[in-house]
Amino acid sequence: MTIREKGWKEIAPAGVCSKPSTEFLTGDWKTYQPVRDTAKCTRCLLCVLFCPDGAIHWKPEKADIEFDFNFCKGCGICANECPTKAIEMKLE
Amino acid sequence: MKSVVKQEVLALNGDEAVAYAAKQSDVDVVAAYPITPQTIIVEKFSEYVANGEVETEFVCTESEHTALTACLAASVTGARAFTASASAGLALMHEILFVTSGCRAPVVMAIANRALSAPINIHADHSDSIAERDSGWIQIYAENTQEVYDTIIQAFRIAENQNVLLPVIVGLDGFTLSHTLENVSVLPDDAVKEFVGTRQLPSVLTHEGKTAPFKLDPENPMSMGPLALPNYYFEFKRQQEEAMKNALTVIQQVNGEYAEMTSRSYGNGLLESYCLEDAEIAAVCLGSTAGTMKAVVDELRAEGVKAGLLRIRSFRPLPVKEITKALEKVKAVAVMDRSLSFGGNGGAIYHEVRHVLYDGRVHPYVVNYIYGLGGRDTSPSQLRRIYEDLQKILKVQRVENPIQYLELRE
C-alpha cells in the first residue's frame, strides 16, 4: 500500500505525531530474529521484562510468551538474559 | 493610534535592563546559570523572585545545557520562558538550541556577547552568537541599553507570534552594554503586560485525531519532535525556514506597534539606516559599535563627506531585500565583523552582506573589517580611518586587500 506523504504545508509543526507510536511499525529494522526453543524455555518471563521495546508479550490464555515482530528490533537482549539459553538470534 | 505612554527614567546597565524587561513581561519560568558578563541578569532576576516581585518559577540549574532544556520543557507546556547566557555558556547550550527551535518553542534568551576561549577572555565580541547563526534562532542585536530593554519586551511578541513560533536571542555587547549605566525610559508594568499579552497557541491535530492547542498537556496528549525519518525531517526544517520569513514581517510590525506606545523606533525593526540616502561610502555593523559609528558619520558629514551607516538589527532572519535597497546607491561598503570565521575568507556579516549585494543592480566595492575581538576597544579615530580607506578605494577604483584587521599589531 502506498501512503501519500504530506507536504510541509500540511503537517503540524515541531514533529507533532499524526499517529500513535503503535501505528509506526518498526520491526523491519532487524537483522537478527530471536528463535525460541520451547522445550528449553521455562516461561520465567525474564525476556518479557528485559525487552527494551515491550515486544515480547505474556499471553495468559496460552500460558506462553509471544514475540511481536512488528516491533522487535533484533537487539538480542532476550537471548542474552535467558537463563536457560532457550533463545537463539538467527540471521533473517 | 495609541497615545504615547508616560515613562519613567531609570539608571540601568544593560543586564539590569534585561532583567527589568523580563520582570515586566509576565514570564512564567526562568531557568538560568550565571556567566560573565551576563551574571547581573540572573542575580537581578533572582532578587525579584526573592522579594516576591514576580510570580515566576526560577530554576537554578547546574549548567547552561540544563538551563535551556528547562526553558524548552516549560515553553512546550505553553509557558513563557526566559533565560540568559554568554560565550562558553551559549556554546554549552548548542545542542539544545536546535531542539528549542525545532520544537518551535518561543524561548527568549539574552546573550551578553563575549569572546570564546582559548585563550580565556571575558570581554565583548560576537563569536558566541554568530557561531549559532544556523541554530534556527532569531537574532536581534541592540545598540544601547534603551534598545536592550525595548528589544527584550518586543522579543516575546515576535517569538510567540503564531506565524513565527521561534526562539529569539537578543544580543547585547558584553560590558559595553551589559555593565554600562545609561538612562533608560521604562514603561509602567501594566503597559508592558498588555503589550506582551498572554501566549496564544495554534491548534494542531494530535495522534488521537483531536484538534488541540499546541502544547504538552495531559488532557490532550501529543508528542513533539520525537522522531522524523528521512521521509519527513526535511519538511519540518522547511517549516522553520518559512517561520523565519514570516518573522521578517512580524519584527517590523512589533517595532511599529512599540513605537506607537513609546515613540521609540529602531529603523524598521530589521535594520537602521543612518545618513544613507545620498551616501557614497558606508559601513555595515551590528550592536553597540553603531553608536560610535554614528558619531563618526556626523563628524564626516560636517566636513562634507557623504558617509553613511547601516546597522543590521535582525541578523536572523537576514533582511535581504531591505539591505539591498539600503545600499543600492552606495559606491563602497565596509562590513564590520566582531567575530572571525577562521579560513572562511572574512567574517560572517561580510559573507552575507556581500552575498546579498551580488543580486543588486550595481555592485559596490566591499571590504571587510575584523575588529574588536576579545573586547579590543574600537575608538572613533579608528572607525574614521575605515571611511578614509573607503574614500581611497573610490579614488583608485580598486580594493587592494578585502580583509582588514582593524588596529591589529603586526
List its salient traits.
heterodimer, A: 92 residues, alpha+beta, Alpha-Beta Plaits, two-stranded antiparallel ribbon, two-stranded antiparallel sheet, 2 helices, elongated, B: 410 residues, alpha/beta, Rossmann fold, 2 domains, seven-stranded mixed β-sheet, six-stranded mixed β-sheet, 13 helices, 17 strands
Describe this entry's structure for a reader:
The complex is a heterodimer of chains A (92) and B (410). Chain A has 92 residues and is α+β, with helices and mostly antiparallel strands. Chain A has a single domain (26-91), classed as Alpha-Beta Plaits, CATH 3.30.70.20. Chain A has helices spanning 46-50, 77-81; strands at 32-36, 56-59, 64-67, 87-91. In chain A, strands 1-4 form a two-stranded antiparallel ribbon. Chain A is elongated, with a radius of gyration of 17 Å. The mean pLDDT of chain A is 93. Chain B is an alpha/beta fold. Chain B folds into 2 domains: 8-201 and 232-262, 3-Layer(aba) Sandwich (Rossmann fold); 271-405, Rossmann fold (3-Layer(aba) Sandwich). Helices cover 38% and strands 19% of the residues of chain B. Chain B has helices spanning 14-24, 39-50, 64-75, 87-92, 94-102, 127-130, 145-160, 189-196, 233-262, 289-302, 320-326, 348-358, 380-396; strands spanning 8-12, 29-32, 57-60, 81-85, 108-113, 138-141, 168-173, 182-186, 203-205, 211-213, 271-274, 281-285, 307-312, 314-316, 332-337, 365-370, 403-405. In chain B, the strands form 4 sheets. A 7-stranded mixed sheet of chain B has the order 3-2-4-5-7-6-14, with helices on both faces. A 6-stranded mixed sheet of chain B has the order 11-13-12-15-16-17, with helices on both faces. Chain B has a two-stranded antiparallel ribbon with strand order 1-8. In chain B, helix 1 (14-24) crosses helix 2 (39-50), helix 1 runs parallel beside helix 7 and helix 7 packs across helix 9. The radius of gyration of chain B is 21 Å and the shape is globular. The model of chain B has no long low-confidence stretch (mean pLDDT 97). The chains are: A alpha+beta (92), B alpha/beta (410). The A-B interface holds A 5-8, 11-21 and B 76, 102-105, 165, 202, 204-208, 214, 222-228, 231-232, 234-236, 238-239, 242.
